[in-house]
Design goal:
Oligomer: single chain
CATH superfamily: Ribokinase
Distance between the termini: 42 Å
Strand content: 15-25%
Order of helices and strands: EEHEHEEHEEEHEHEHHEHHHEEHEHHH
Number of strands: 14
Largest sheet: 8 strands, mixed
Strand order of the largest sheet: 4-1-9-10-11-12-13-14
Radius of gyration: 20 Å
Shape: globular
Number of helices: 14
Amino acid sequence: MTQPIDIIVTGHICLDLIPALGAITPEMLALPGRLLETGPMSVSTGGAVSNTGLALHRLGANVRLLATVGDDLIGRVIIAFLKDRDPALTEFMHVKPNQPGSYSVVLSPKNGDRTFLHCPANNSTFSTEDIDFEVVAQGKIFHLGYPTILPRLIENDGDALAAIYQQAKAVGAATSLDMTLPDPASPSGRADWKAILAKTLPYVDIFLPSIEEILFMLRRDDYERWHGNVLSHLTRAYLRDFADELLVMGVVIAGFKLGEMGIYLRNAESAKFDRLARLGLNVPQWADAEVYLPAFQAEVVGTTGAGDSAYAGFLVGIVRGMSPENAVRLACGVGACNVEAPDATSGVQSLEATEARIHAGWPTRTERLPDFRRGRT
């Protein structure tokens, strides 16, 4: 008998080109007319479909990627890269004829944040017709990543995005959504995210964005007032209120990735978990749960895909029947493993190796949310 599909991942996929910048600082990159010597180029697939999908695969989930690539060398490289990991990953991927492939150049200078040079290409046309809902019906969880850089999904205040999630729920899947931070100067940055999410979140079961992303979308005044220093303003009361806002909008399992501060989780009441029957969760354990765990210590080499990997860890925790606290702990562990490598996925270890590191007493970072007592509400 064919093993049931745990998670189907769709949305944005591209090729990541990551030059090793060594001692090159952000200031050096800003100087025109210079030749700066770099190290070897890391080439890997990127975007939510690849980052989350490959992390899930490394963790042992039965995952399929439901995405499109361009009809060119970049598209062929993406397919070949994924097939080299496991041919089953590409079973439901398809090539868009006469379209170029999407790529990103990831610049990670010394002592500086990342800068992305991104070509959307085939991702600019991705929409409802690119998703086979007969395939979605075969999975326990349907996960879509990066609608922020899939422009057709957010046109008309997110009509297509909401339609995708309505159809995914109609075929019985539990649904999950992940974001990126919009560029304020882009069409995504100017979109009405309150309207988009008001249409979509009633059909989203699991929502674990980064705090910066969701502040930009729903609490823009706070985001702009705290810009560059968000984490220092967060308290348990603030996050609880914000998570409750997401629960009122329709989410069942809500939370925030907090970077170096870890992950916060807040869940709906037990009646809402009827929507997640396909997952077989221990509902008394999950309903009304509130969990905060700090990040694990890690030697940071690169942060590309860290949030995607953490989300993958959380989803694996769910399909493996873990408690909310253990699922959050696994998410923190997978995210920490991720940053110990320069690309988006090679730092991620197997589920067994990650759990062994956690159980061996993996130390956590010293940063903590103030006023927080772990546990249930």
